[in-house]
Every structure is written in structure tokens, then in C-alpha cells.
Specification:
By secondary structure, this protein is an all-alpha fold. The protein has helices spanning 3-22, 27-36, 41-62, 64-67, 71-94, 97-130, 142-158, 163-174, 179-204, 209-229, 236-255.
């Protein structure tokens, strides 16, 4: 990896850590940059997964105030997330590598749709929360939420772009709570999924350790930045960047 490529990966790690903490979808920044350095898609994916773990932890620490009083919720959803994340990681390495090349452009495209639709989703969540007085909802989210979180976590263990968007959508429709508190839980769960997938990959996959370290350091810084600005910064510009970079990633994968 050349010095300029290293700098690009480090910068992508900062951007991913920041975006993951605020809205999710940071993988759409780091993954195409890793591809541009010449890494194979699966190696890029597992290296990215491990590198983003410190960023998720950093973002969760930054949102520690919003996590107060949510221990039971995190324990319930965390167990489901760990199972789903491990299942997704197993699928990544058991399916043929050609399957990843075929599936990932589709997953990125779906993730971009979710990113674009996120403002409407957030508005719908706010309207539902405003009606909380007449619709108390299930205190634990119910079986539907657990099933949805299991599937979203499996997707996160397999690839992970827009995993945070899925989490916020599922929890927001199930819990009558402040979106910032839901976002704080999202950061913890994303960290658990990346962590369990990374532990599995350590034993069975090939990493690019230079990329791992650069993304880890960058995403840790980005997690703190995202936590500080997340309550004030409009995600519109970040969303536009995600869409542009995601489209570039799709083109890169299709032209490989």
C-alpha cells in the first residue's frame, strides 16, 4: 500500500467512524477505498469489519449519556445481534467468493435506497412517537423486533452497509423513545456484530493488517467526532457523500 493509499484508507476510516456514529453506512466509505487499493472484495470486507470495531466502541462511549437506563434493552437485543452477526460471518466465508462479487453490488444498492429514504423513515418514526400516549407498544419490542434484529444482524455480519439504518428503523418502530437514545443503542449493537464477526474472521480469514490498523485508528477518531456533532449536524451532506461513494463502489465491483 503506497503512502497516498494509506492516507486515503485512514481518511476513509475517520469518515466511516463519524458517519456510523451519526447515521450508519460508514462501510460505503471504507469498502470502495479498500477496493481501490487492489484488495480482493472478501479480504477488503473482513479487514473493514475488524477495523471498524474500535470506531463502534468509540461512538458508543461518546453516546454513553443516552445509554443510561437501557441496560436491559441492550442485553436482550445484544444476544440476538451476536447470533445474527456470527451467522452472517459464516455465510460470508462458506458461500463461493463469486457469490460475494454478485451479491454485494445488490446489497450496496439496497443500502443506498435505505440511506436516501432515511429522512422519510425518521419523520415516520417521529410521528409514531408523538402518538405514543395512545399506542404504548410492546415494552421489549416483541417477537417481530427480535426477528428483524436477527436478520439485520446477519446482514451486518455478512457485509454491514446501512446496518445502522436498519437498526434505527426497526427499533424506532418498536420503541417509543428519543431517537438519540435509539441511535446510542444502535452503536452498541453494531459494535457487537462487528466484534463477533471479526473474532470469527481472525481464525478463518485473511486480513490486510495495514488496512485494519489504519481503519481502526481512523474510525476511533471518527467515533468521537460523530458523537460530538451528531446532535447538531444535519446528515444531508453526509448522506449525499454516502450515495456518491456507494455508486462508485457498485461501478468498481461491476467492472472487476
Amino acid at each position: 500500500m503506497s503512502p497516498w493509499e494509506s492516507l486515503a484508507v485512514f481518511a476513509a476510516g475517520i469518515g466511516a467512524g463519524t458517519i456510523n456514529t451519526i447515521v450508519g453506512s460508514g462501510t460505503l466509505i471504507t469498502f470502495p477505498v479498500l477496493l481501490a487499493t487492489g484488495l480482493p472484495p472478501v479480504t477488503a470486507n473482513v479487514s473493514n469489519t475488524l477495523g471498524l470495531v474500535p470506531g463502534s466502541i468509540s461512538g458508543a462511549i461518546g453516546y454513553r449519556k443516552e445509554l443510561q437506563g437501557q441496560r436491559g434493552r441492550i442485553l436482550r437485543l445484544g444476544g440476538v445481534s451476536l447470533v445474527g452477526g456470527l451467522a452472517g460471518a459464516v455465510l460470508l466465508l462458506t458461500l463461493p467468493s463469486d457469490s460475494f462479487d454478485t451479491i454485494v453490488p445488490i446489497l450496496i444498492g439496497l443500502a443506498l435506497v435505505l440511506v436516501v429514504l432515511q429522512p422519510r423513515l425518521a419523520a415516520a418514526l417521529r410521528r409514531r412517537q408523538e402518538a405514543a400516549g395512545t399506542d404504548p407498544g410492546h415494552p421489549d419490542g416483541g417477537p417481530a423486533l427480535l426477528t428483524g434484529m436477527l436478520l439485520a444482524s446477519a446482514y451486518g455480519g455478512y457485509f454491514g452497509a446501512a446496518q445502522g439504518v436498519l437498526y434505527v428503523g426497526l427499533m424506532g418502530l418498536s420503541f417509543h423513545d428519543d431517537l438519540q437514545r435509539i441511535n446510542a443503542v444502535k452503536n452498541v449493537l453494531a459494535g457487537l456484530v462487528n466484534g463477533i464477526a471479526a473474532v470469527f474472521f481472525l481464525f478463518v480469514a485473511e486480513f490486510d493488517w495495514t488496512a485494519v490498523v489504519l481503519i481502526a485508528v481512523g474510525s476511533t477518531l471518527g467515533g468521537q467526532i460523530g458523537a460530538k456533532v451528531g446532535r447538531r449536524l444535519s446528515p444531508t451532506v453526509l448522506r449525499a457523500v454516502i450515495v456518491v461513494v456507494g455508486l462508485v463502489a457498485i461501478v468498481q465491483l461491476l467492472l472487476r
